[in-house]
Structures are given as C-alpha cells and as structure tokens.
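Data card: per-record layout.
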Amino acid sequence: MTQHSSKANKQLLTDFQSALARRLQGEDVDIRRFFHPDIAWHFPKSTAAASSGSDHYGIDAVMAMFGGDVDTFYQPGTMKFHYHALTAEEDRVHMHFSLEAKAVNGRDYYNDYQSLFRFADGKIIEVWEYFDTAYLFSVFEN
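The structure for this 142-residue chain is written out next.
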C-alpha cells in the first residue's frame, strides 16, 4: 500500500477511537460503519473464559462485544482512553493507549494496551489487542 493509504488508515482509526469513546460515554454513535463485515477481533487467550471469549468473528460478534460485554466489566460512562502513540505502515496501524474506568465492583481500573489494527477496503478487518490480563482479573475479582 502507498504512504497515502497508511495515512488514511491512521485517520480512520483516529475517527473510530473518537466515535468509540463517545459511544462508551453514552452517546448514540454508529461504530459499525468502521468495521469490515469479515472483521476478527482477538484478545489474549487468557480472556477466553471471561464474557464472550478471546476471539470475536464477524461484525455482529464485534458489535455485541461493544454492547453488553463491555457492561459486564465497566460501569457505564466511566471509560476514558489516554492515547500515547500511533504508528502506521502498509495496511496496519499500531496504537498504544491506556484505559481508565470504574469496574462494576466499584474498583478503579487503569491498564495499558497495545493494539494492532489491520485494514481492508477502507475498514477495520482485524484487531489484535494486548494488555495485562492478570491485572484485569485481579481488579474484577469479587
């Protein structure tokens, strides 16, 4: 892909993150438009037993993840993103960010994430998301 495509993908990811942040704060924002119908979203394998599992295939599964799945972990309206770095190359964009939120059990949550997004046809088609799952599970323990 050309440098222009990398730049366009970077902008698309920035637009997606902005829309997602607004949606997670309770706004009625359409994020489906950012996803390729064949999207795959991968989480660390250690998350397989939590919520709906470690991998989500297809746009309906990914949309469900941003619906009820999120609410099983975080109190609605408390999620805030802190962005640290964004790097684009060919059909991939890497994002380093932190997530701050209030867990459903009332505990504070602040974790660092590394996510690699792959694009096809001007849409997000694949995501690999990495974060400290041991910390995540320690916060959400009862």
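Known properties of this structure: The chain has three helices and six strands. Strands lie at 35-42, 55-57, 80-89, 92-102, 108-120, 123-131.

See the next section for split statistics.
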